[in-house]
Task: inverse folding
């Protein structure tokens, strides 16, 4: 960050000292016993609230869990330790993050293990919204990480921290990881874990950059980054790329599915157009199954014609099912069967 820009973002009159930040973010500094007690108490309660909010599909409850969750404190402690290069500081904070994450996942798994067999994970917006992250989630997390780090580094904008806690979702994705593992859905759990990791990396990356500027400004204000700090930023950049790979892949997959859905809708519209006042309501993909939901006042055109028209549009082997508002469900067979 150029010195002129850093002076505007972190003005001397409002800049907090490294000692202040260490007291806030290092759970082993100062009155460590009280800090740890508060951390584990609030994290446990946050995990319980987040899991309950996820299972009841309650956005308000999940937001409440985000606000009281203290997990961002040791995550920013990692960033501070990397910036100050204090021996062992980043490692100590990382242990709190790891054990805290395992606690939240364990609580979620316990609830997930007790779910009835009829519980539909994919029918829950709190779960589906956190199991398929994309590249935009990482970009938003980086911006939120900078907002959080700057709010910590300045005395006059600390009021924005509750908003940062809501924007940088940490405990809810871990609760989803646990619920999905407990319910026997490791694929969904992996997606939620990637979301958590992307948020964690974004916080550490942004925090390290901002806190490094504080270290420089507090020292002389004119020194450049040392070789050790260059290595730190290089490691963080590599970690960011590693986390971004599945996010990019998922984003491309989502875009492809949206394009494919639009093409199927066009074919289905032409097919159902043979029936007056009939229309396509929704087209959805579920694994290797394609479901076309239609509204019709009477009989449908032959579904074999739809399957034939979809050849070359949808990959071979995809099973086609047509459902109607009259309660009919017709298995049209796989693409390419004819």
Result:
């Amino acid at each position: 960050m150029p010195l002129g820009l850093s002076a505007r973002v972190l003005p001397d009159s409002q800049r907090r000292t490294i000692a202040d930040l260490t007291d806030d973010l290092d759970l082993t500094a100062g009155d460590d016993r009280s800090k740890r007690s508060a951390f584990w108490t609030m994290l446990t309660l946050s995990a319980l609230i987040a899991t309950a909010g996820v299972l009841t599909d309650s956005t308000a409850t999940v937001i409440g869990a985000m606000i009281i969750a203290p997990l961002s404190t040791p995550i920013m402690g990692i960033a501070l330790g990397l910036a100050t290069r204090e021996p062992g500081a980043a490692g100590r904070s990382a242990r709190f993050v790891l054990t805290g994450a395992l606690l939240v996942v364990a609580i979620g798994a316990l609830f997930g293990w007790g779910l009835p067999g009829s519980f539909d994970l994919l029918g829950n917006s709190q779960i589906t919204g956190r199991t398929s992250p994309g590249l935009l989630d990482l970009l938003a997390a980086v911006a939120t990480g900078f907002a959080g780090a700057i709010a910590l580094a300045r005395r006059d904008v600390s009021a924005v921290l509750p908003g940062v806690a809501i924007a940088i979702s940490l405990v809810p994705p871990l609760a989803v990881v646990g619920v999905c593992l407990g319910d026997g859905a490791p694929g969904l759990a992996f997606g939620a874990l990637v979301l958590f990791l992307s948020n964690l990396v974004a916080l550490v990356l942004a925090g390290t950059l901002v806190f490094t500027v504080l270290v420089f400004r507090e020292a002389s204000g004119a020194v450049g980054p040392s070789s050790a700090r260059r290595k730190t930023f290089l490691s963080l950049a590599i970690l960011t790329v590693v986390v971004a790979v599945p996010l990019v892949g998922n984003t491309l997959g989502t875009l492809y599915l949206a394009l494919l859905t639009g093409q199927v809708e066009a074919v289905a519209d032409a097919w159902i157009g043979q029936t007056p006042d009939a229309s396509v309501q929704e087209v959805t993909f579920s694994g290797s199954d394609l479901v076309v939901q239609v509204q019709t006042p009477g009989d449908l055109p032959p579904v074999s014609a739809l399957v034939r028209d979809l050849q070359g549009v949808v990959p071979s082997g995809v099973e086609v099912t047509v459902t109607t508002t009259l309660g009919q469900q017709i298995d049209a067979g796989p693409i390419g069967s004819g």
User: Anything to note?
Assistant: The first strand starts at residue 279 and ends at 286. The beta strands are 279-286, 289-295, 319-324, 329-334. The chain has a mean pLDDT of 84. DSSP finds 13 helices and four strands in the chain.
